[in-house]
Amino acid sequence: MTATPGPDPVLLVGVDVGTSAVKAGAVRPDGTLVAVASRPTPPLDGPADALVATALSVVRDTVDATGAARVAAVGVAGMAETGVPLDADLRPLGPLVAWTDRRSAVDADAIAARLGAAEVYAITGLTPGPKRPLTTWHRLRRTAPGVLDRMRVWAHAVELAAFGLTGVVATEASLAARTMAYDIVARCWHDALLAEAGLDPGRLPPVVPPGAAVGTVTP
């Protein structure tokens, strides 16, 4: 963790939930870096709560290093495909599914064979592959249908960090587009693609425009 001396009246904080580290930086409105903190990312196939706790700790470390500054906004970015299903109480229904997990390769092939890789690409801008969340959901429907039946909403790493900060589960368009279930032309969840995993748009987070606020940081 590093910091420049002296408090600043208003700062912006950016968080990066990365594969190897969770990092945060505080900047002045003109872009001057004031403080930065980093902690190793917990195992990508481990408990989701550990990832959320790490993100919150990094934000706290960064803000503490700034002194008496007021944080006007927090932005979160990071790996798009690592995620977990949450139940009706927004608790994880198992460990994180890492973007490096290749167990869904057969499901990617099945979707490509059934719908056509070119057709999927035309809708989503992506070709079927094992790290796409849609293929993970397809695998879970095939191997653990009870998990998807209990899932209220799916949350990726970035959305989990934002949820930890705000208590709101939401996503934004560029992250939604990484799922292979989002229509990048119509800008909405795609019913037919979600149906491949027996899901509907109500089981995915609401999508906000890039840069829009998903909620207010809680005490």
What would the keywords be for this entry?
single chain, 219 residues, alpha+beta, five-stranded mixed sheet, two-stranded antiparallel sheet, 8 helices, 11 strands, 33% helix, elongated, disordered N terminus
Q: Can you tell me the overall shape?
A: elongated
- How many beta strands in the DSSP annotation? 11
Number of helices: 8
Rg? 18 Å
**Helical residues, percent:** 25-40%
pLDDT < 50 runs, ≥5 residues: 1-5
Beta-strand proportion: 15-25%
Question: On the 0-100 scale, what is the average pLDDT?
Answer: 94
Q: Sheet bearing the most strands, described?
A: 5 strands, mixed
One letter per element, helices H and strands E, the order comes to EEEEHEEHHHHEHEHEEHE
Structural class, by secondary structure, is: alpha+beta
Distance between the termini: 23 Å
The main sheet orders its strands as 1-4-3-2-5
